[in-house]
Design goal:
The protein has helices spanning 174-181, 254-268, 289-296, 316-330, 334-341, 347-357, 368-379, and strands at 8-14, 47-51, 66-68, 88-92, 96-100, 106-110, 116-120, 151-158, 164-168, 199-204, 210-215, 242-248, 276-282, 305-307. The protein is of the alpha/beta class. It has 2 domains: 8-158 and 358-379, GTP1/OBG domain (Spo0b-associated Gtp-binding Protein, Chain: A), CATH 2.70.210.12; 164-343, P-loop containing nucleotide triphosphate hydrolases (Rossmann fold, 3-Layer(aba) Sandwich). It has a 6-stranded mixed β-sheet with strand order 10-11-9-12-13-14, with helices on both faces. A 5-stranded mixed β-sheet has the order 3-1-8-5-6, with no helix packed on it. Strand 10 (199-204) and strand 11 (210-215) form a beta hairpin. The protein is elongated, with a radius of gyration of 29 Å. The N and C termini lie far apart (72 Å).
């Protein structure tokens, strides 16, 4: 089933080329030696990225696969300057990271509403021949061509902006928790992989404070090998300052399940292990006090843990207190989150991800000869070089 949540797109972007300068000679009655008056060419259009909080996914860009800015106009007689090419603005949701599709190199990151980043610069317009008149060459019959356009095939990847990321197996109670403590209402059902796309919710706290929690589809052992939904959604917790591991209390071995989840995160990105972690044992309403005490003795000792039940509300206020305390201690760890988001991509891994998304080979890029033929048909103009 096709979803409207699109967090990967591949787009060919091309700025505009600069217009050529004019090499016109002034012609007027009673002006026998008018001299050069060729105007400059206009600059080519730029390509900009613009953060827009009204977008939550990259769906609006999925079928706009080529984004070209306008070319600069050519200079003309009487010193007329060519028109500047039309700029193009690409609106993206906050949290969008851009990579070079050929090399995997990190290009830029859009994190704020209204933030504008120049992705590609348009070519400068060429100077007209009036700039080259000298005492020894008073009638130059040459002008500058415009600078060429720039082209870049980019991959835009959405990484949700949230303070807390939930990590767990399918049916661990992640969506139930988000539904219980935030304003979000993800789908809840009694079968695996109920959550097929990430969701975020805002959790209210004391004194008008709040923090954002992100729920991603459950991962399973072997996800790094493509099992289940794979690791494609883990990118959405790369920005999170805190990871909340959620394991059901009725599982056979809580420590083993935690180690499996930790291993899958290590396979995806070892830097995720540097983030602060909390372990929440869910479905505690199925456990009595004696069993909780018994299970606590075998839990990992390198991170804080808490037993909760989102259905009955058991320890939910205490969980919010613990999350806020850890976030405050880590100062939300924004610098490290940015460092993870800004790393270059492994090009092999990137191509595999794009192949899974069906984005790998469906863009046609014209070569320079084809472009020249099209441009000559579209906007070719003859220079006015009338002779006496």
């Amino acid at each position: 089933m096709e979803t409207n949540f699109i967090d990967y797109v591949k787009i060919v972007c091309r700025s505009g080329k600069g217009g050529r300068g004019s090499m016109h000679m002034h012609r007027a009655k009673y002006v026998p030696n008018g001299g050069p008056d060729g105007g400059d060419g206009g600059r080519g259009g730029h390509i900009y990225l613009r953060g827009n909080r009204n977008y939550w996914t990259l769906l609006h860009l999925r079928y706009e696969r080529h984004i070209f800015a306008g070319h600069g106009g050519n200079g003309s007689k009487n010193g007329s300057h060519g028109a500047d090419g039309q700029d193009r603005y690409i609106d993206v949701p906050c949290g969008t990271v851009v990579y070079d599709a050929e090399t995997g190199r990190f290009v830029c990151d859009v994190t704020e509403d209204g933030q504008i980043i120049m992705l590609l610069k348009g070519g400068r317009g060429g100077l007209g021949n009036k700039h080259f008149a000298t005492s020894t060459n008073q009638a130059p019959r040459f002008a500058q061509p415009g600078e060429p356009m720039q082209e870049l095939t980019v991959i835009m990847e959405l990484k949700m902006l949230a303070d807390v990321g939930l990590v767990g197996f399918p049916n661990a109670g992640k969506s139930t928790l988000v539904n219980a403590i935030s304003s979000a209402h993800p789908k809840i059902a009694g079968y695996p992989f109920t959550t097929l796309e990430p969701s975020v919710g805002v959790v209210s706290y004391h004194d008008n404070h709040s923090f954002v929690i992100a729920d991603i589809p459950g991962i399973i052992e072997g996800a790094s090998e493509g099992k289940g939904l794979g690791l494609r959604f883990l990118r959405h917790i790369e920005r999170n300052a805190l990871l909340l591991f959620m394991i059901p209390g009725d599982t056979d071995n809580i420590r083993r399940d935690y180690e499996v989840l930790l291993n899958e995160l290590t396979t995806y990105n070892p830097e995720l292990l540097e983030k602060q972690r909390i372990l929440a044992i869910t479905k505690a309403d199925l456990l009595d006090d004696e069993l909780i005490e018994l299970l606590s003795a075998d839990l990992p000792t390198d991170l804080p843990h808490i037993f909760i039940s989102a259905v009955t509300g058991f320890n939910i206020p205490q969980l919010k207190d613990l999350l806020w305390q850890q976030l405050d201690t880590a100062d939300r760890n924004l610098s490290h989150s940015s460092a993870i988001a800004h790393r270059d991509k492994d090009i092999t891994f990137l191509r595999d991800e794009m192949a899974d998304e069906g984005e790998a080979d469906d863009i046609i890029i014209l070569d320079e000869d084809q472009l020249e033929d099209i441009e000559m048909l579209e906007d070719y103009e003859l220079e006015d070089l009338e002779e006496d």
